[in-house]
Amino acid sequence: MDTNIEKTASEAIRYRRSVRIFKEEPLNTEKVKECIRLASLAPNSSNMQLWEFYHIISSDMLQRVSALCMDQNASKNAREMVVFVVRKDLWKKRAHANAENRKNLFGNKKFNEYTKREKAGINYFTKVMPVLYMDFFGILGCIKWIIAQVAGIFRPMYRQVTQSDMRIVAHKSTALACENFMISMAAIGYDTCPMEGFDSLRLKRLLKLPYGAEISMVIGCGIRVPEGIYWPQYRIPFEEVYHTK
User: Fold this and answer.
1) What is the model's pTM?
2) Is there a contact between 132 and 170 (Cβ–Cβ < 8 Å)?
């Protein structure tokens, strides 16, 4: 497969399949790294970027990670792997980084010198994000939920404000990064297989992740062999899932 000729977006999407058996041919690690970089450009909630990417390239770590993925073919045959990690616990750090970025963008000056729009841009990360992400054993989340439901009686209201809601938000954003990665890999003729079957506790320990981190998925990477795609792609008829209003 010529990885120097990139596919169009639609070609890459059609080419991408979950491949479970890969050639023994090694990958260009720098090209995989660039696909991870493209993953970091994925759309994400409030630009909080609550993710980390662990690129598994050493033979020892590949074997150890594969064992924690129950040695399924997509991990056992992978030439490299990428572990996509959700870091909701870093919300304060990422909110601060966004606020500082806004200040640099608007020009560092006294707060009362910012325009109304600039103040709103900064306050979004210094005031709104803490309201959404801060919690205390789920208690604050319950209070926020009650407030949202009452306010929602009178006007449209954002209602996903509990601790579990914000966890889902962080996982959705990381899943978008996973898709960016897989399509980027497909564009250069590399193949992937996303895996959710793994021992998350042991894998967190292996990667030395903190308690608040969560693993979204492990993606095996390589170059397909024909038997690596188990069966023809099947999708529910589009008319069953497409609706207009």
Assistant:
1) 0.93
2) no
Reading the block at residue 76, the tokens are: 């056992």
Q: For residue 136, what pLDDT is reported? A: 84
Beta-carbon contacts of residue 171 (< 8 Å; ≥ 6 apart): 86, 214, 216
In angstroms, rounded to a whole number, what is the distance separating the alpha carbons of residues 206 and 83? 12
Would you say 65 and 81 are in contact if contact means Cβ atoms under 8 Å apart?
Answer: yes
153: which DSSP letter? T
Backbone angles phi, psi at 194, to 5 degrees: -75, 135
* Residues 51/179, Cβ–Cβ less than 8 Å: no
**108: exposed, middle or buried (C-beta count within 10 Å: 0-12, 13-18, 19+)?**
exposed
Spatial separation of the C-alpha atoms in residues 113 and 134, rounded to whole Å: 29
Share of the chain above pLDDT 90, in %: 87
Please provide the average confidence, as pLDDT, over all residues in the chain: 95
